[in-house]
Write a structure and sequence with these properties.
By secondary structure, the protein is of the alpha/beta class. It has twelve helices and ten strands. It has two domains: 173 residues, 3-Layer(aba) Sandwich (D-Maltodextrin-Binding Protein, domain 2), CATH 3.40.190.150; 97 residues, Periplasmic binding protein-like II (D-Maltodextrin-Binding Protein, domain 2, 3-Layer(aba) Sandwich), CATH 3.40.190.10. α7 links the parallel β6 and β7.
Length: 333
């Protein structure tokens, strides 16, 4: 059938069928030429945290690969990242709006249900694309604090229940869950002070507004190297190269205290296969970029890339573990 016959037959179709055909042709064209405009990486936290650290080098590399600007947009409305997560869940599944977020993506809807609230979004509204970073969390305190070891910290917390303030990125966010895991295992009560993201929480720790913080190595390293902060323990299963002398919670007698801050790329569910293939290929190349690798390693947070299939399996397993932890912790403010 030539072009003239195709157009004549299309014109003879009912209007509704013509509309469906036009949408089909338009969709196929969009998939074949994507991207035709700017791509947005929504980071649901303020600049300076783990998700932001993951997004910016990758966006710069992906921009060169895809030939279109990749803009990082910090949409920090508090609620542990729920506001930005929900915004992407509602976005059109066309590949132009994507989400770089943390493990709290799976936790926050469960926390809402725990309190009888309607979740702002559901995990089923997203498709995992790639994991970017995956770091064990570290417990940091001001360098001026009296605690030289985790034992010192626990003994003081037991002597003064509810009086040592710690910061977080919001209720049931990654930093909150990590600290409550530790507090429950140690049998201590701390004072939770939520902020709108990890970066404001770090600022509060540096200023002395709070006295403890769970955070990623890449976020803490410069401050520890400058002598402003001290780290007491590592939530990982083993010690890490950027802090080789820092013991794990397991080493210190807390075998069930293990937590990782990972960052990954997600799209709204329903992105066309052709667009997803281009995006996955672009991410694979971006994560091999020397500039990206150098940036992450310099920050003490080496790349932890996983492609879609592997990341999906990781995300499902990690989410199940974290949801079980939330249910065990129960309602906390």
């Amino acid at each position: 059938m030539d072009r003239r016959d195709f157009l004549m037959r299309a014109a003879a179709l009912p209007l509704a069928a013509q509309g469906s055909l036009a949408a089909l042709v338009s969709g196929a064209h969009a998939q074949g030429t994507w991207p035709e405009r700017n791509i947005t990486f929504v980071v649901p936290f303020p600049a300076g945290g783990q998700a932001d650290l993951a997004a910016r080098p990758v966006a710069a590399a992906l921009e060169k690969i895809l030939g279109r600007p990749v803009v990082v947009e910090n949409r920090a409305g508090g609620a542990g990242g729920a506001v930005g997560n929900a915004a992407v869940a509602r976005a059109a599944p066309d590949g132009y709006t994507q989400l770089v977020t943390l493990s709290s993506l799976a936790v926050l809807p469960e926390a809402d249900r725990l309190f009888g609230r309607t979740p702002a979004y559901e995990v089923s509204q997203f498709t995992p694309v790639a994991r970017i970073l995956a770091d064990p969390t570290l417990l940091a305190v001001p360098a001026s604090a009296p605690w030289k070891t985790l034992k010192d910290f626990v003994e003081d917390a037991k002597a003064r229940p509810g009086q040592i303030p710690y910061g977080s990125s919001g209720p049931y966010g990654t930093l909150h869950i990590a600290m409550e895991m530790f507090a429950a295992a140690a049998g201590i009560k701390l004072l939770h002070v939520p902020f709108r993201g990890a970066a404001p929480a770090l600022t509060a720790l540096l200023s002395g507004t709070v006295q403890a913080l769970a955070s990623a190595p890449g976020v803490l390293k410069a401050q520890v190297d400058d002598g402003k902060l001290r780290v007491l323990a590592n939530w990982g299963a083993e010690r890490i190269p950027s802090f080789p002398d820092l013991p794990t919670f397991k080493e210190l007698g807390y075998p069930d205290v293990e937590f990782y801050i990972w960052a990954g790329l997600f799209t709204p569910k329903g992105v066309p296969d052709a667009v997803m293939t281009k995006l996955r290929d672009g991410m694979r190349q971006a994560m091999k970029s020397p500039e990206v690798i150098k940036t992450f390693e310099a920050a003490g947070s080496p790349p932890a890339y996983q492609d879609q299939a592997e990341f999906t399996r990781f995300f499902e397993a990690d989410s199940a573990r974290l949801i079980a932890a939330v249910k065990k912790i129960g309602k906390v403010e």
